[in-house]
What does this fold into?
Amino acid sequence: MSDTTQNGPVLAADGTPLKRSLAKALRMQKMRALMLIAPLLLFILVTFILPVGDMLFRSVDNRIVQNVLPNTVIALESWDPASTEIPGEAVFAALAVDMKAAAEIKVHTKVAKRLNYENPGLASIFRKSGRKIRKWDVENEGPYKERLIELNDGWADIELWRTIKTYSGRRTMGYFLNAVDMKLGAEGVTVRPENERIYNTMLIRTMRMSLIITFSCILLGYPVAWLLANLPTRTANMLMILVLLPFWTSLLVRTSSWKILLQQQGVINDVLVWIGIVGDDNRLVLINNELGTIIAMTHILLPFMILPMYSVMQTIQPTYLRAAKSLGATNWTAFWRVYFPQSVPGIGAGSILVFILAVGYYITPALVGGTKGTFISNLIAYHISTSGNWGLGAALGAILLAVVLLLYWVYDKIVGIDNVKLG
Amino acid sequence: MSALPPYATTGQRVWYYSFRVICGLIFFFLIAPIVVIIPLSFNAQDFFTFTPEMLRLDPEGFSLKHYRDFFSNDSWQSSMWNSLKIAPMATIVSVTFGTLAAIGLSQPHVPFRRAIMAILISPMIVPLIISAAGMYFFYSRIGLQGTYFGVVLAHAALGIPFVIITVTATLVGFDRSLTRAAANMGADPVTTFFRIQMPLILPGVISGGLFAFITSFDEVVVVLFVGSAGQKTLPWQMFIGLREQISPTILAVATILVAISIMLLATVEMLRRRSERLRGMSPS
It folds into this structure.
């Protein structure tokens, strides 16, 4: 519709054109909405988004080598790592200067630790030499090449120089390559030998077990959701409490309960022995393995499957099933070709949710998984808190986060995040 | 499903009853692990299974000793108080920011609504270990690691998605002409908010707050990384107990926590019905 008449634009009460006045009001409205959201957005940004970003940055950060060995890195620029000769006197002299400076403030151990991740054994060379070089006069006591090699013959190893050269940049892909069981050497990217591949195995195991958990949840959740959606509201509400109670119960309570139930002297084994299914001397091993993790996590995540399924199934008209049957469909055909396709969105929503939550689980696998049933999260926690290889932990975290965010995006496209229901 | 028609065939009858049995078993699977720890927590022995005395319902087999241990043990008591100090503060922070933002998000014209929503919900989606590691590094850098304030901020961030989800859900049915009517009668925006909008969305705000509370009260991964020994919470203490020397006191703690969850669940359900009634929907 046009907002102009023969007498010119329609005017608002204060004399401005109505169109501009309306646009201004809309802008005001938008501003007001954003002003209400802004504090929280800022809060989440500082307390959550920045920390996660900071951690992701660590997965490529390699400034330590340049910071500790600045002169060596510059001197190494002219050296060709493909040559068979170790670098000349100039590089060794630069190294001596850097090492003396580093040893005085005791940061040479940091670079030693960093390079040791890529080439095990380098740490001790750096540490031992650092202690001695501290007492050197690095201006006029050359030649340093001979003196350093005399100090520790590791300095004559060309692999050491290749490692330093490869990891002299400010950024590195080294951690990510380690995280997928590859290695960045002087000759480029190579796959690690079979017996050193632990991270891929872990990643695949996490995916595989999360899929198994998701499928068990579908299998157990579907009948329950169907029953809840088809019972009279009063009964359904009563039964719904049985689904919501686990949802509200502390995760640690549920995990400790499974830990107690599943152990070899636990209630489940006792019952099985009492019935006579298993003998007293060969009780089932249900815990500290993959099975334990799968059982406990299926139980913990089942409500997240039932709730979305239930809310979709509630909208399916029971008359469709009756119509199908009256048209001659058997029970199975009516279910499979009429009811099931309509319930697929619920299965999809529940599955993505359960999978997202399962992939990143830490507590339950750590407590009931033993060594065989742990997830990638447990490995990340190990690298962050125990081994101190933060870069590798961050790289593994970044891969996990990428998987989760991809699924989150899919979930948003299919279901919409504003449609998440919490009971 | 409500009842079998009189003309049902034998096959249909068998399926009808076996389906109910299957569902019953699944409900059993859901609820049994939670229920079973309640009697076990009254065990007079330090075992994690039913003793013969308990099965005979002999009063000798039952005792309150694990509860006594919980209430007299210093480390359990201090962890309980830490939890009770952290969770309410985190709840207040997330409810305040979350409710404001949820009201903003339910305005009719919000630019980048989808993107903002995705960011605000992300603490619920990002694996806890990643959040925990990131907060550990970042908070150490700004001096918040190992402080009470740091743990409160971290827990508040984790609770926000729940507040946003519940409050926006309540606001979906909110009749905006009510606020316009109030404004028309001369109320300023603050009065309108506190006297018109707030009472109507209060049930949603409270249940969002309860979600945020339970999130913080149950949380262990982030507090393990962001907190220090001074902020050892109840779940942290349980986690240590489960990993190292598993003591039956955990059963007593678990039972108390189950009782708290039942109370919270009952409150949330009541509030949900009340909110639906307030908004003129038939309570389901």
In short: Chain B has a mean pLDDT of 87. Chain B touches chain A through 95 residues (CB under 8 Å). Chain B has three domains: 1-36, 41-72, 76-278.
